[in-house]
Specification:
With 472 residues, the protein is of the alpha+beta class. Helices cover 35% and strands 20% of the residues. The structure holds D-malate and zinc ion (ZN). The site of D-malate has 6 residues, from helix 11.
């Protein structure tokens, strides 16, 4: 029997699609990667996932797991060989348990992130992972890629929000590690190995997540700065002034706001004149009440305005205004997509070296690629910038993209030289895997390879992702 018919027999014909039926799932969001598969399958529970893995093992068929297919690195797109099975966890979408005494929530990997947030809210709690794709990305994908987003500054990445996991191993066993413990110091941390492994070490099928109190009030403002150095200096003041209440500090350059105005002319900008070079979206969460939040917010912003650190501030006066400011920030991804391809870089450097990184890299870019335009934005509080570079006026997108290897290397070398990372929150996938050979030490790469060998000795889980070719 072929693998396809065996999968049909195992799961029922309705749960198994061929490459043509699954075509829409076989390309990534930006159409950069396109693959083919032997089958795409929709198991109904963890036991079925394990059975699929065992069956694929018997046929030596690779397995690629896919959640909402919103990733940017091609981690969830199979190769073109047509040998892989695409494993979709959309049927594993149950909330298994909410424990408000323990402040934990146990959910399956196929839940959409927004559903997880809503389940927490319905129980009077906050699940703080938050990113632009939250309406379609899944928790499994968030954990597989250790997603970041806009609340990392206060609550951490997906990894920091996870207490326990259920994982199907490469040989089709089920590891029940769904522990809701804040303290569990009993040997190697397997949970943290699987999180961020992009489906190359095991298949995450469920997770026990941390919940937090819902804030009593939130204040949001759009801020204007005369320089990036002033934005960084104000970040430090805001941390002091707001303490743990500082939940977001999202940076946008003036060129990003121009791009938003160009692409979404119906959305008004908080500063229509765009006179300053840098802007930020700031959010304070408060556990007392509206009046307390507002007084604190106005005091910290007022002090910064008085000292000249802040040029101007627009405080949201209503929920609708708050949402409009956030929509603007979250539209950056789509605005770039509409404007045509640019070169995306998801770098992180220590906040203390951020200004130097931007100044030096901007200057280097202009020296080697005159006229290119920077769209620099991102999560300033985490030192994580989306340092994106679009074509110079007068050059086509295709001409610009032909410089991708050289230009990206310049940016990544610069991030590396500033003590930084070439992938802060988007992962490695297939897009950046060869870069690891350049930026990770041989010792680190060797340790990663030995972990892969130990957990997936036949190399059937998401081959061609994360780890560079062995010869590299
Ligand atoms: C963001 O912060 O908006 C995303 O991580 C960047 C992107 O989608 O390119
Ligand atoms: Zn981001």
């Amino acid at each position: 029997m072929t693998l396809f018919t065996e999968l049909q027999r195992l799961l029922g014909a309705a749960q198994v699609q061929d490459s043509a039926q699954a075509e829409a799932l076989l390309r990534d969001r930006h159409g950069r990667f396109v693959g083919r598969v032997a089958a795409a399958v929709h198991p109904r529970d963890t036991a079925e996932v394990a059975a699929v893995v065992r069956l694929c093992g018997r046929h030596a068929a690779p397995i690629v797991v896919q959640g909402g297919n919103t990733g940017l690195m091609g981690a969830a797109t199979p190769d073109a060989s047509g040998r892989a099975v695409l494993l979709l966890l959309d049927r594993l979408n149950r909330v298994r348990q909410i424990d408000t005494d323990n402040d934990t929530l146990t959910v399956e990997a196929g839940c959409i992130l927004q559903q997880v947030q809503e389940a927490a809210r319905a129980a009077g709690r906050l699940f703080p992972l938050s990113l632009g794709a939250e309406g379609s990305c899944t928790l499994g994908g968030n954990l597989g890629t250790n997603a970041g987003g806009v609340a990392v500054l206060r609550y951490g990445n997906a990894r920091e929000l996870t207490l326990g996991l259920e994982v199907v191993t490469a040989d089709g066993q089920i590891w029940d590690g769904l522990r809701g413990l804040r303290k569990d110091n009993t040997g190697y941390d397997l949970r943290d190995l699987f999180i961020g492994s992009e489906g190359t070490l095991g298949i995450i099928t469920a997770a026990t997540l941390k919940l937090f109190p819902l804030p009593a009030a939130q204040c949001t403002a759009f801020l204007a700065f005369a320089s990036l150095a002033q934005a960084v200096a104000f970040l430090s003041q805001a941390r002091q002034g707001f303490g743990a209440g500082l939940t977001a500090f999202e940076l946008l350059s003036v060129d990003c706001l121009r791009l938003l105005r160009e692409q979404f002319p119906a959305s008004p900008l908080p500063f229509p004149d765009l006179e300053q070079p840098w802007y930020a979206l700031l959010e304070l969460s408060d556990h007392q009440d509206e009046a307390h939040a507002r007084a604190l917010f106005e005091r910290v912003l007022g002090d910064a305005l008085e000292s000249g650190l802040l040029v101007d501030a627009r405080i949201a006066e209503s929920l609708a205004q708050n949402e409009a400011l956030w929509r603007l920030r979250e539209a950056m991804s789509d605005a770039q997509k509409r404007a045509g391809q640019n070169m995306k870089h998801d770098i992180a450097v220590p906040v203390s070296r951020l200004v130097e990184f931007v100044e030096r890299t901007d200057a280097l870019l202009q020296r080697h690629f005159p006229g290119v335009r920077n769209y620099t934005f991102g999560h300033l509080g985490d030192g994580n910038l989306h340092y994106n570079v679009a074509h110079a006026p007068g050059r086509s997108v295709a001409e610009h993209m032909a410089d991708y290897a050289a230009l990206s290397q310049l940016v990544h070398d610069s991030a590396h030289a500033h003590g930084g990372s070439i992938s802060a929150e988007h992962g490695i996938g297939q897009r950046k895997r060869e870069l690891l050979a350049r930026y990770k030490s041989p010792v680190e790469l060797d340790l990663m390879r030995r972990i892969k060998q130990a957990l997936d000795p036949r190399g059937l889980l998401n081959p061609g992702k994360v780890l560079p070719e062995a010869s590299a």
